[in-house]
Amino acid sequence: MYGLLIIAALVAYWISIKQSAARKQKQFRLPADADEILNDRVSFYRRLSAEDQQVFRDRVRDFLAETTVRGVGTDIDDTDRLLVAAGAIIPIFSFPDWRYNNISEVLIYADAFTKDFRATGDNRNVAGMVGDGAMNRQMILSRKALQSAFRHNEGDNTVIHEFVHLLDKADGSVDGVPEYLLSQPAVIPWVRMMEDNILEIRGRNPNKIDPYAGLNEAEFFAVISEYFFERPDKLQEDAPELYAMLESMFRPDKTNGRK
Ligand SMILES: [Zn+2]
Predict the structure, then answer these.
(1) Can you give the pLDDT at residue 131?
(2) 224 Cα–ligand 1 center, Å
(3) pTM for the full model?
């Protein structure tokens, strides 16, 4: 009897949590010029149909309702928040139910910072980082990098890069193998493809991929994903096999139906 009461109380509690989360999301409004800002700044958004743009904005809104984005030692504005959320949604846009379960807060520093998050002194060369340990569930981005991420269309984008690390981390390890996006039989071919490409980048680097991708598998996956979302045309032309593999990971809805 008591067992049933406890279960009923737990269910009521769970429902109230869900309802308050839904209320929070409903109350959160995007700035009136969100569509204009996204159109102006985000090439991925520009390429979407009007219908998909609406879906994108709803998901940006939900992300911002659930995740705090705040400046540390610098003021941030609506555009900064929208760009962070756009970088979060782009990699998971083909997964309507995906919610990042490993982030609560995005901290924006004015400029690059050190590996131990200092914003002053020497060795400030980090533009973005996914926190670990005491910084778990946090991401840090340099505002300068955030502002320029979507500006040049050369295939580099620090925001997308860091959110791809988070996607990679969702299975417990940042190792270039996003287990939620890969079927089991696809894991070994993907690891081999990464190894071959890393060797190529460390060597001749014929496609002029950012050499940072040659550091390890995690960085390779994050960097190549930036190209995939920012310059799909170029990646498809330069490295069609790699492009097809990324498409099967990030857009299974598109590739499943293909013969
Ligand atoms: Zn990285």
Answers:
(1) 82
(2) 11
(3) 0.87
